[in-house]
Design a protein that fits this description.
Elements: E1 5-9, E2 12-16, H1 25-32, E3 51-58, E4 61-68, E5 81-83, H2 97-104, H3 114-126, H4 134-141, H5 152-161, H6 173-183, E6 188-191, E7 196-199, H7 203-212, E8 217-219, H8 225-230, E9 238-241, E10 251-253, E11 257-261, H9 266-274, H10 278-284, H11 290-295, H12 298-303, H13 311-318, E12 321-325, E13 330-334, H14 335-338, E14 339-341, E15 344-345, E16 352-359, E17 365-372, E18 383-392, E19 395-404, E20 411-412, H15 414-420, H16 428-436, H17 438-441, H18 452-470, H19 485-491
Parallel strand pairs: 1-5, 7-9, 8-9
Antiparallel strand pairs: 1-2, 3-4, 3-5, 6-7, 10-11, 11-16, 12-13, 12-16, 14-15, 17-18, 18-19, 19-20
Helix pairs in contact: 2-5, 9-10, 15-16, 16-18
Length: 492
C-alpha cells in the first residue's frame, strides 16, 4: 500500500507523504504552489471561479473534465493530471485559442471569474461529443457565474474557439501512462491511525478499511462532503475515498435493467439513464453544474439521505434497488426502504452503498419528473416530483408517486396512488381526488427555499402536469424548457 499521494500538476509530478485529509485542491494550488490564476469565490462549488481541468487516463486516452477545486479534496487527485489556467499558453503562443477568443470578444471585465470560465471552455475544446451549438456552450458554462458581462461575449468566444481544432496543452499521455503504471492496483494510505486519507484500489480493501475504521467518512465525489469542510468547518480526521476503486463506477446495461456502480458520476450515468426516458436526462442536467456532475455520484446522492436529493424520488418511482456491502455481509433493498427518517438511513456500521439497479420501463409505463428551484441551473430543489403511471389503454392500472422536499425523507404518496387506479388518464375531473389527497399525504415545512403552501401547490401542479402530458398534451403546452424529444419530433 502506498503512503505517498502522487499526481501531475501542470508539467510537474507532485509527491506528498504528509497532507491534511481535508485539505482542498484549491488551497494546495494557491497556498502551496502559488498558482494564483485559479480563484476562490464562493468556496462551495457554485461560482466556478476555481475551475481546473482534471485529466484521467481512460482506455489509453487522456480525458479532461472541469472540476471545482474548492470542494475537491486534495487526496482525490491521486493518479490524475491537473491543469490550471496558469499554463494554458504554451511555447511561443502568448495565449491559448480559448483565451484569445475571450479577449477578442471582450468576454472579460473584472476578470475574477475569467480563469474558471476559460478552464471550462478548455475542457469543451478537448471534449467534442456534443453538437456545436449555443445550447451546448450554455450547458458547459452553467457552473461559471459572471456578474459583469451578461454572458453573450463569453458564449460568442466559446462558439469561436471551442469547436475548431483541438489545442491541447502539456501533452501528458506518456507521462500519465508511466505514472499510472507505477500506481496500478496500489492503494493509498497517507497519515496515521488517528488521521489519514485512504484511497483503496479494490472494493475488498475498502470494506476491510471501513470495518477497521468505522468512524471514517466515506467520500465519493465530495460535492456534499466538501461543503462540510469549507462551510461547516468540520474536522474529518479519517477519509475513506472511494474514487480509486477499480470498477466501482462501472455501469452495466441489460435488456431489463441498468446497474449503476456506487461510484458512477452523474456525467457517466447520463446517457444510460436517458435511454430509459428523456425526462431523466433533463433532470440530471439540472443537478449542479458540469463541474459538479463530473465529480458527484448517484450513489452519494442516495447515501447522504438528504430529503431534497434529486435522484431518490425518481429512483423510488422506477422501483430501483440498492446493494449495501460490508466486510461480513451483503444486503439489497428498494431505494424507498433505505430512508427511515430525517437524517436516518438503513445503513449499518461498515456498510457502503455499492450499486443501484434500475429497471427499464415496461409496456404501458410512462415516467415524468420535474424539479422546482429558485434558479434553473445548479440550484437545490424546493420540490422534486417523480411519477410513473401505468396505462391499459386510457385506464390507469398502477401509479407510483414520490416527492423530495415535502417531508423529512423522499417519500411516496400511497393514498394518491390508490385513488388514481381505475381512473381514465383523459378524465381531468377524475384526477382531482388523487391530487387533493396530497394534502393528507404530506405536511411540508417552510424554509428559505419555499413556504409550505407554495410546496403543496407546486406538488399538486406537478402531478397534474405529469397526467396532462401522459394523456397526450404536448410538453410545449406544459413547459418552458426541456421539451420532450417525442413532442418535438411530432411537431416536425
Amino acid at each position: 500500500m502506498l503512503n505517498e499521494l502522487c499526481f501531475r500538476l501542470n508539467d510537474q509530478i507532485i509527491r506528498l507523504k504528509e497532507f491534511d485529509p481535508t485539505a482542498t485542491l484549491l488551497d494546495f494550488i494557491r497556498e502551496q504552489q502559488h498558482l494564483t490564476g485559479t480563484k476562490e469565490g464562493c468556496n462551495e462549488g457554485d461560482c466556478g471561479a476555481c475551475t481546473v481541468a482534471i485529466g484521467t487516463l481512460e482506455q489509453d486516452e487522456m480525458i479532461y473534465r472541469p472540476v471545482n477545486a474548492c470542494i475537491q479534496l486534495l487526496g482525490m487527485v491521486h493518479g490524475r493530471h491537473i491543469i490550471t489556467v496558469d499554463c494554458l499558453a504554451q511555447g511561443d503562443a502568448p495565449l491559448h485559442p480559448v483565451q484569445e477568443a475571450m479577449a477578442r470578444n471582450h468576454g472579460s471585465q473584472c476578470g475574477f471569474c475569467t480563469p474558471g470560465i476559460v478552464m471550462s471552455l478548455y475542457c469543451l475544446n478537448q471534449n467534442r461529443a456534443e453538437p456545436p451549438t449555443r445550447e451546448t456552450v450554455n450547458t458547459w458554462l452553467a457552473g461559471n457565474l459572471c456578474r459583469c458581462t451578461g454572458y453573450k461575449p463569453i458564449i460568442d468566444a466559446a462558439m469561436e474557439s471551442c469547436f475548431g481544432p483541438q489545442v491541447p496543452v502539456l501533452a501528458a499521455l506518456d507521462e500519465m501512462r508511466e505514472m499510472n503504471a507505477a500506481l496500478s492496483s496500489r492503494s493509498l494510505f497517507a497519515g496515521t491511525e488517528e488521521r489519514f486519507f485512504a484511497a483503496p484500489a479494490t472494493l475488498k480493501e475498502a470494506l476491510e478499511l471501513y470495518d477497521r475504521y468505522p468512524d471514517a467518512t466515506p467520500v465519493a465525489g465530495a460535492t456534499d462532503v466538501g461543503l462540510w469542510v469549507t462551510k461547516r468547518l468540520d474536522d474529518l480526521p479519517k477519509i475513506l475515498y472511494l474514487g480509486c476503486i477499480d470498477g466501482f463506477g462501472d455501469i452495466t446495461a441489460t435488456a431489463d435493467s441498468l446497474t449503476i456502480g456506487g461510484g458512477a458520476t452523474y456525467e457517466a450515468a447520463l446517457a444510460h439513464l436517458a435511454e430509459i426516458d428523456p425526462d431523466i436526462a433533463a433532470l440530471i442536467l439540472r443537478i449542479g453544474s458540469r463541474q459538479v456532475r463530473a465529480s458527484g455520484t448517484i450513489g452519494g446522492n442516495i447515501a447522504n439521505g438528504s430529503p431534497i436529493g434529486d435522484t431518490p424520488p425518481l429512483l423510488i418511482v422506477l422501483g430501483a434497488t440498492i446493494k449495501l456491502q460490508s466486510a461480513s455481509q451483503e444486503r439489497t433493498m428498494p431505494v424507498e426502504e433505505f430512508f427511515i427518517d430525517y437524517g436516518k438511513q438503513d445503513r449499518e456500521a461498515g456498510e457502503l452503498l455499492t450499486s443501484i439497479e434500475v429497471p427499464r420501463l415496461q409496456q404501458g409505463e410512462h415516467v415524468r419528473c420535474s424539479k422546482i428551484s429558485k434558479r434553473f441551473d445548479q440550484d437545490i430543489s424546493a420540490v422534486m416530483g417523480a411519477f410513473k403511471i401505468t396505462l391499459d389503454g386510457d385506464t390507469v392500472t398502477a401509479a407510483r408517486i414520490a416527492y423530495g422536499g415535502m417531508a423529512g425523507t423522499p417519500r411516496r404518496a400511497y393514498r394518491s396512488e390508490q385513488l388514481l387506479q381505475g381512473v381514465s388518464v383523459t378524465d381531468e375531473a377524475g384526477w382531482e381526488p388523487a391530487i387533493a389527497a396530497l394534502e393528507q399525504e404530506y405536511a411540508p415545512m417552510t424554509d428559505m427555499r419555499a413556504s409550505a403552501s407554495y410546496r403543496m401547490i407546486a406538488a399538486k401542479n406537478l402531478l397534474r402536469k405529469a397526467l396532462l402530458e401522459i394523456s397526450g398534451t404536448p410538453s410545449n403546452e406544459t413547459r418552458v424548457t426541456a421539451l420532450r424529444p417525442d413532442d418535438l419530433e411530432a411537431a416536425e
